Amino acid sequence: MITNNLVAKIWSFCDTLRDDGVSYGDYLEQITYLLFLKMADEYSNPPYNRDFNIPKNCDWQFFLKHPLEGLILDYINALNVLSQSGKMLSNIFNGAQNKIHDPYKLKKLVELLDEDNWISESVDIKGDIYESLLQKSAESSGAGQYFTPRSIIKAIVECIEPQPLETISDPTCGTGGFFLGAIEYLNNNHSIELKNKNKKEFLQFKTFHGWDIVPSTARLCLMNLFLHGIGDMEETPEIKVEDSLLELPKNNVKIVLANPPFGKSSTYTITNDEKLAKQESYILRTDFWTTTSNKQLCFVQHIISMLEENGRAAIVLPDNVLFEGGAGETIRKKLLEETNLHTILRLPTGIFYANGVKVNVLFLEKKSKRKTPNTKEIWFYDYRTNVHHTLKKYPLQFEHLKSFVECYQSKDKVTTSETWNEDNLKGRFRRYTYKELILRDKVNFDITWLKDDSFIDLDSLPEPEILAQEIIDSLESALNSFREVVKSLSKGN
After folding, report:
1. What are the pLDDT digits (tens) for 408-430?
2. How far apart are CA 423 and CA 411, in angstroms?
3. Paired residues of 159 in beta bridges
4. 3-state SS string for the chain
5. How far apart are CA 367 and CA 468, in angstroms?
6. Distance between CA atoms of residues 89 and 413, nearest Å
7. Own/partner pairs for 65-71, CB < 8 Å, 24+ apart?
């Protein structure tokens, strides 16, 4: 209740600022800057008495007591000074810009945030408040297409089962959704172990490694982690503002959790061919299996390269990765050979903010090279056929994926209640052997075995709203595919 009330209070002020051209994303950024200064101020008082070396005329009290005259100019100067102050300050304020140009409204926002004592709240409450603001921003601004549903993250993390002292990476971390899922899991399942000083410090400063190409998004990720107990006011976990694809991983990690950005084409092509790499817009990665400009296919190869031996990964990928020829076929063969690609979860439309998105989650373990393929079989879970979700009326919840998690975790998958067999033709969990997969045209993983009930029984058609949304999703999916074809044709010319 505290969370909802505070979120509503802070978010309601956004509508006032929108009249001045301040977008939802800009508003959340300004809150992040000011919230950091507010918490630094709270920590400077008893019983904490901590000094974070906030530069003169940049601290919370300076702006809280500042008259309207000159406020905007002093705020702009402060953001610039803070961005050059090193450590956590530089990470939070790097490239910071003021987007609130009305001094009265900036003052009002400062006073609004000052009404509550943030550090007195538990980590859970602070984190929930910020997460709620992030989600509202994503929903309202259209940036939600990059926002992985928390229900999917929770299901993935329950399957991956991160342990204390394991490193966790996300090469496209966004605002840190997968990291938060891992934090929640570790706190819920390993709370006693995390009382150990070494394990607690490892979680705070060494567990998470992320990359994002957008400075403002990386900033939101850092603040999100900080409010969930990761890092502190002086030091942060490693969140880099750069394109993670552009160089070989410097250190291997135990776990990778990722949802690479939608859209296939890139402005550059990554190749393992040294001759090709001499051409303009080609980048050499000798660790890659094949040449491609398809971002998803690049990230699949990059993630395998990031993993240490026996490291595990869960990657959210669109359907084209399962069936695309050329580089796609090469990569699927390599996945079967060099990893244990043991599970693929197939998800329905209506769960992402972007229309027409059909995704899958690939679960795998990196293995050492051997003469025989490392993947002996893949278990497919079809949570798509005869499944209908919408963002508002019938959103995807973790409970909807519980059966999948149980099947995934079962020691004897053949006997799970969801398994398909001749006596259970509606079973959603089905195994395909390496031999069956390698003989499919282009090693196609785009597999469906369940009958669509709506084609058979008109009485079982979904609600009109859901049906209409699925038609929109199908059209959007086709349009997205066609746009990629046009882009590739243009690039070829």
Report:
1. 999 999 999 899 998 899 999 99
2. 21
3. none
4. CHHHHHHHHHHHHHHHHHCCCCCHHHHHHHHHHHHHHHHHHHHCCCCCCCCCCCCCCCCHHHHHCCCCCCHHHHHHHHHHHHHCCCHHHHHHHCCCCCCCCCHHHHHHHHHHHHCCCCCCCCHHHHHHHHHHHHHHHHHHHCHHHHCCCHHHHHHHHHHHCCCCCCCEEECCCCCCHHHHHHHHHHHHHCCCHHHCHHHHHHHHHCCEEEEECCHHHHHHHHHHHHHCCCCCCCCCCEEEECCHHHCCCCCCEEEEEECCCCCCCCCCEEECCCCHHHCCCEEECCCCCCCECCHHHHHHHHHHHHEEEEEEEEEEEECHHHHCCCHHHHHHHHHHHHEEEEEEEECCCCCCCCCCCCEEEEEEEECCCCCCCCCCEEEEEECCCCCCCCCCCCCCCHHHHHHHHHHHHCCCHHHCCCECECCECCCCEEEEEHHHHHCCHHHCCCCCCCCCHHHHCHHHCCCHHHHHHHHHHHHHHHHHHHHHHHHHHHHHC
5. 44
6. 50
7. 66/107, 68/103, 68/104, 68/107, 69/103, 71/103, 71/106, 71/107
C-alpha distances in angstroms, 482 versus 261, 318, 477? 18, 15, 9
53: how many CB neighbours lie within 10 A of its CB? 10
Residue type at 478 in one-letter notation: A
Give 124's pLDDT tier (boundaries 50, 70, 90).
Answer: low
| Side chain identity at residue 36, one-letter code | F
Cα–Cα nearest to 178, from 100, 280, 258: 258
Residue carrying the six token digits 């945030």 = 113
Sign (positive or negative) of CA dihedral 190, 192, 195, 199:
negative
Q: Which residue has the tokens 């398994």?
A: 419
Tell me the per-residue pLDDT of 203-239, one tens digit each, with 9 for 90 and over: 999 999 999 998 888 888 888 888 788 888 778 888 9
In angstroms, rounded to a whole number, what is the distance separating the alpha carbons of residues 204 and 186?
12
**pTM of the predicted model as reported, rounded to 2 decimal places:** 0.85
Confirm if 487 and 479 have CB atoms less than 8 A apart.
no
pLDDT at 493 (0 to 100): 44
Entry field: residues in the chain = 493
Residue 359 · residue 260 · CB < 8 Å: no
Sequence letter at residue 178: F
Contact 312, 364 (CB under 8 A): yes
pLDDT digit string, tens, across residues 358-416: 899 999 999 998 999 999 999 999 999 999 888 778 889 999 999 999 999 999 999 99
Tokens of 2: 């505290």
Q: Which residue has the tokens 């991160």?
A: 162
**Smallest Cα–Cα separation from 331: which of 319, 343, 322?**
322
Determine phi and psi for 438, rounding to 5 degrees: -70, -20
- The sign of the torsion formed by the CA atoms of 321, 381, 350, 425 equals positive
Tokens of 180: 């938060």
